[in-house]
Design goal:
This protein has ten helices and twelve strands. The chain is α/β, with parallel strands linked by helices. The C terminus is likely disordered.
Length: 264
């Protein structure tokens, strides 16, 4: 399989191209879909490793191929692992990956819960790229219960602030939504340095059945509109929105309301 690939399903809503830097992830998020997506049990998935079979040499070849295609799509790091998990402090494969992609003049976007660990590579990104964090909670102690290995929310928010201050476009992934009120508060506290919000819901977890998704979808849109934010509502949440949702953000395909992603 190609190291730089086209995501499918829900992931496709976030990026047209992606590259997974590691195999597995030591953040051990309790809601993570990646173990099942990679056909691993959670215990083995939580013990990550460097990807086998010459990841770096193969990536160099693929990056050159994509450069020849003159693609303008950003390559997202990463979907099935975190590029700034603890293992990267030792291996620094993420920096090598960024250096390869940037040497071929390819655009990248980083999605991480690594917090301050991501700041090491801030020098490699430019305004053509983007930096993003998954923000689920605000309380650091509560985050430990759901995301025991990830950086605390305060560090992720600080990282977003730093990248934004360096002139690099930022976005925040509000997915999964564990507490609607907290997700709305995250928007209020970060909208001045987050260029785009991508909002989803919680799936495959019993807690999801206890949340009023119709109310949250409407509350989120109303808040984002009132603050003048750019945003993208993922399909699984957008289906709860009414027909009179602002037209500039809506396209109808096969009877579904699909939010169109704003360009950074």
């Amino acid at each position: 399989m190609s190291l730089i690939y086209e995501p499918r399903g829900r992931a496709r809503e976030y990026a047209a191209l992606a590259c997974n830097v590691y195999s597995g992830c030591d953040h051990c998020c309790t809601y993570c879909y990646a173990p099942s997506a990679t056909r691993k049990n959670r215990d083995s998935f939580s013990v990550p490793g460097v990807r086998p079979n010459g990841f770096i040499p193969k990536l160099k070849k693929e990056a050159k191929q994509h450069w020849l295609k003159h693609t303008s799509d950003r390559i997202l790091l990463s979907f099935t692992c975190d590029p700034y998990q603890h293992l990267d402090v030792k291996e620094q494969i993420t920096r090598q990956t960024l250096e390869i992609l940037k040497a071929c003049d390819l655009r990248v976007q980083i999605l991480t819960k690594g917090g301050l660990r991501a700041l090491r590579d801030i020098d490699l990104l430019t305004p053509r790229d983007a930096f993003a964090c998954s923000l689920t909670l605000l309380d650091n102690e509560q985050s430990l219960e759901w995301e025991p290995g990830a950086a605390p929310p305060s560090e992720r928010i600080y990282a977003l602030h730093r990248f934004h201050g360096a002139g690099i476009p930022t976005w925040a992934s509000l997915e999964p939504v564990l507490d609607p009120a907290v997700s709305l508060q995250i928007i209020r506290e970060t909208h001045t340095f987050v260029n785009l919000f991508k909002v989803g819901k919680l799936n495959y977890h019993p807690l999801a059945k206890t949340i009023d998704w119709r109310k949250f979808a409407n509350d989120a849109v109303n808040l984002l509109e009132s603050l003048g934010c750019k945003y993208y509502i993922k399909r699984d949440l957008a289906c709860y929105l009414p027909e009179n949702t602002p037209k500039q953000f809506i396209a109808k395909r096969q009877g579904q309301i699909i939010r169109q992603p704003a360009l950074l």
